[in-house]
Write a structure and sequence with these properties.
The protein has 218 residues and is an alpha/beta fold. It is 43% helix and 11% strand. It folds into two domains: 141 residues, Rossmann fold, CATH 3.40.50; 67 residues, Orthogonal Bundle (DNA polymerase, domain 1). The protein has a six-stranded parallel β-sheet with strand order 3-2-1-4-5-6. It is globular and about 50 Å long. It binds 1,6-di-O-phosphono-beta-D-glucopyranose and magnesium ion. The site of magnesium ion has 9 residues, from loops.
Length: 218
């Protein structure tokens, strides 16, 4: 029986993935590393530091820790600049309704995001109170595809992993959910969500959570 829903943030609740891409592209350009949407796909759901490592590997570049920190800070500043005017209107279609209705139906709700900016974003979009527990990149630093962020969510909600569903837009997140013993709904394009139990284009497709679970996940 499913009793909890764990939501990824970037790409599921809000479309911040495009801003991460813009900021990383700026880093890559300055480092003269070719970096387009295809390469960016590998960064989705991956922590900030691991994302930088992937980009540096693409350019076969090795940097000392201080220089890495410099690029991480710049990237985050550019990213923060993009999200500074974010508002409730920026919530992706169907997300707020699903969060509210699922809670009314008695499901426990958690956020399971790799982002250290998750709380800032949730405040901007006015969804900070839509979650019973928030697990972000500050609480769990080990990156998806490690399942820690979702397992911590299940633990804090006091629900066994097999009774949780994860909603994810990234391949690394699907792998993390499966490794954690959870069911997983892929949100987005079929090509990047291998292994998900079911794939939807947007949360808007989940009209009724109970029907959705009995049709696709039981
Ligand atoms: P930050 P999610 C992830 O969020 C993003 O998908 C990923 O692109 C980003 O690098 C990561 O958060 C860290 O974000 O730099 O804000 O700490 O998809 O797990 O909600
Ligand atoms: Mg995501």
């Amino acid at each position: 029986m499913i009793r909890a829903l764990i939501f990824d943030l970037d790409g599921v609740i809000v479309d911040t993935a495009k801003y991460h891409f813009k900021a990383w592209k700026k880093v890559a350009k300055k480092l003269k590393i070719p970096f387009e949407e295809k390469e960016n796909e590998k960064l989705k759901g991956i922590s900030r530091i691991n994302s930088l490592e992937i980009i540096l590997n693409l350019g076969s570049i090795q940097l000392p820790a201080e220089e890495k920190n410099h690029w991480l800070e710049l990237k985050n500043n550019w990213y923060l600049e993009h999200i500074k005017n974010m508002k409730p209107d920026d919530v992706l279609l169907g997300a707020e309704q699903l969060l509210t209705k699922s809670r009314e139906e008695g499901y426990k709700i958690a956020l399971g995001s790799a982002s250290k900016n998750a709380i800032l974003i949730l405040k901007k979009i006015n969804l900070i109170n839509a979650f019973d527990k928030i697990i972000d990149g500050n609480l769990v630093t080990i990156s998806k595809p490690n399942p820690k962020v979702f397992l911590e969510g299940a633990k804090l909600l006091e629900i066994p992993p097999e009774e949780c569903i994860v909603f994810e837009d990234a391949q690394a997140g699907i792998i993390a959910a499966k490794r954690g013993g959870m069911k997983c709904v892929g949100v987005g394009s079929r090509d990047n969500l291998k292994g998900a139990n079911v794939i939807i284009k947007s949360l808007e497709e989940v009209v009724d959570i109970n029907t959705f679970i009995s049709d696709h996940l039981s």
